[in-house]
Amino acid sequence: MIRTSFNDDWQFRPKVNPFAELAGTAVPFEPVIVPHDAMINRARDATLGGAATAYFPGGAYEYRKTFLVPEEHRGKRIMLELEGVYRDATVFVNGNYAGQRPYGYSRFRIDADRFLRFGENNEIRVECRTHQDSRWYSGAGIYRDTWLLVGEVVRISPDGVHVTTPDIDAGRAVVEVATTIENDSNDLRTVELVTEIRDVAGTVVASDTAPITVQPHEPAVARRRLYVRDPSLWSPDSPALYTCAVSLTGIDAVEVAFGIRSLRLDPEHGLRINGETVKLRGTCVHHDNGPLGAATFAQAEERRVRLLKNAGFNAIRMSHHPMSTAMLDACDRLGMLVVDEAFDMWTWSKSPFDYSLNFPEWWERDVEAMVAKDYNHPSVIFYSLGNEIPETGAATGAIWGRRLAEKVRALDDTRFLTNAINNLLALLPDLRAQEGDDTGINTLMADSGFDVNAVAASDLVTTRTAESYSVLDVAGMNYSEIRYATDRTLFPNRIILGTETFPPRIDRNWRLVEQHSHVIGDFTWTGWDYLGEVGIGRPQYATPDNPRPTFMAPYPYLLADCGDIDITGHRLPVSYYREIVFGLRAQPYLAVQRPQHHGKTVMSSRWAWSDTIAGWTWPGHESAPIIVEVYSDADEVELLVNGRSLGRRPVGEEHRLRTEFETTYEPGELLAIAYRDGVESGRDLLRTATGPVVLHAAPERPVITADVGDLAYITLTLTDSAGTPHTAADRPVRVDVSGDGTLIGFGSADPASKERFDATEHHTYRGRALAVVKPTGPGTIRLTAAAPDCDPVEVLVTVESRPR
């Protein structure tokens, strides 16, 4: 079927009661850009939504679009594909009910041709709603891409090309292509099926032609084996992609990208890709794109994947729902491994109106949608059946787990299965009886006085989770690293994946991953900061009135404040520490604790890193005590303040790859020098910003395209004249966009900002802000920015024509 973008010319408004509208209550539609988040620009309030969803209100929304269907399309098959509508989507075509999808993260299609008026304009309307149905910021509306599919009555089925590579050696690879062909006519039809494999240069490296006979209204599956000589293998370090082009001569054609790679799994070698053992340096990520909210633009997804990989990760666990197609495509191209997750709940609810209300009726269709979306993506190596599902500690939960597992295996037996099980949940009724009914599991885990690992290691957990783990290929464990060693003896065939772990424990966890062959990786919570679950990683300090940490923060907190990378894409100190732990960074790294909290008792949650930034600009704190952290895998590090040595301290693995120096703040230069075997092995330098503040604006890519999903990211920074970041000189920045683009998001990484992302003015945070611009066509985008006491700046971004 021919696929064309259906993103243009949508209109949007809050859902209106039709009876109220008849009585004169009119709410006008407004034009919007799809993908669109209906929630991100709504006013937040302490009384709305709640901390989990960042104090955004719920609501009901409707979209509409008018489109012409040519007369020549009469007799064809026409479908509308929506990659994601949050949530409880209902679709109407020319006023007729055409379909629905309760789950907000599933791609679905609407068979529209039966309702269409050919040669005339037609209207499609999409309604959706969200209310107390998520534990994080979900966004709302048509937040992923939409597509129009047009095909003949005999055609290749959507998602009808499945490519596998079951047999690979150095000289050749077997590529099996299974193509599903549909025949909606009333006649027996014989068609010619042509299958070609092309390499990255577009050269045909294997081909096959065969006749296929299809009965009326009975799909036929044609399986072909092709042989690629001297194959280039897909791996995280070398993500070689091929194209499989399948056509029905003169009727239909489809192209899909795929990779040639093999997967193996056992307790002695762990996970092997193309015969090589790979340890997963993983991160969990939520789906929002910071200042864009939940809107899923292809460039936003690719940017996140690229920056996460640059920071040392080689794997993403999508938390806690199926990943977008755009992000999967980026993971394929860039070499990022994927654990794609189905659900955050099964039959037991976590929020009053969540998907558990729909799960018993819809789970099979949503699993089918996830697998159909993922099948040809070489980056996908695991399906996860769920996240912290409370039922996993009960016999009925094990039954559900086996049911889901066998469904996925029936659809795709080329990947492995896991389930991100929180062992605390196996004992949740017991814990509630001891702690009180209103004590949530996250509150327990945030409390440093509660021993998460001790509970996870208990015999009762071992017994209650045994069956749920047994239905999986890999036991996914959240916050249960204490089981890694003991389970090797208790369950010799068990392979373990740390599906969710606390950031400050990465050094100890990674040592366990390296020591144990049956432990194949670690996924931190989290690699990229996100909206909602506000303040779980914020710095907290003990006071007489507040002696214990709390899980989430009060309004106006907006962000979780716990990512290695903030929502603008800026790497934080924990990211560089993790890179050292992974053995990917030889240079030391300097981070400075904020002096205004010196001497206070830290009581942050286990998701929090130390309250540090990579900066040596602290006006008003001259001569005040200050703590400097240095991260390094060297033997020792020396710290110098303005050339004056504070001595050397041991660092390295025995000291958890970090050390601290206490000194007094004085402006100037802060220098760390690392030594290995007495010889300098690297250094890191911080300088104090001095003099007038200078505003800079720089596009990440000076040339972009007018293609669907492309964006321009423009970073705004405050520095001194030498380029040193002015982290303590925050001020409002106003931007104006003209030319061939429109501003679709503007903000900072301030975790507690009250400012909106759709405004043209926003305060910097630690000297930084980010503007996101969508091109409106080929030409030039001009962005000008101004800030108090700074000279205005201007940047130009060239927009090239969409590639054909």
UniProtKB/TrEMBL annotation:
InterPro entries: Beta-gal/glucu_dom_sf, Beta-mannosidase-like_N2, DUF4982, Galactose-bd-like_sf, GH, GH2_Domain-Containing, Glyco_hydro2_dom5, Glyco_hydro_2. Pfam families: DUF4982, Glyco_hydro2_C5, Glyco_hydro_2, Glyco_hydro_2_C, Glyco_hydro_2_N2. Residues 271-419 form the Glycoside hydrolase family 2 catalytic domain. Its EC number is 3.2.1.23. Residues 696-795 form the Glycoside hydrolase family domain. Signal peptide: none annotated. It is an enzyme of class 3 (hydrolase). Keywords: Glycosidase, Hydrolase. Residues 161-261 form the Glycoside hydrolase family 2 immunoglobulin-like beta-sandwich domain. Residues 60-130 form the Beta-mannosidase-like galactose-binding domain. GO terms for biological process: carbohydrate metabolic process. GO terms for molecular function: beta-galactosidase activity. It comes from the Bacteria. Gene3D superfamilies: Galactose-binding domain-like, Glycosidases, Immunoglobulins. Residues 626-680 form the DUF4982 domain. Belongs to the glycosyl hydrolase 2 family. This is Beta-galactosidase. It comes from Nonomuraea jabiensis. The lineage of its organism: Bacteria, Bacillati, Actinomycetota, Actinomycetes, Streptosporangiales.
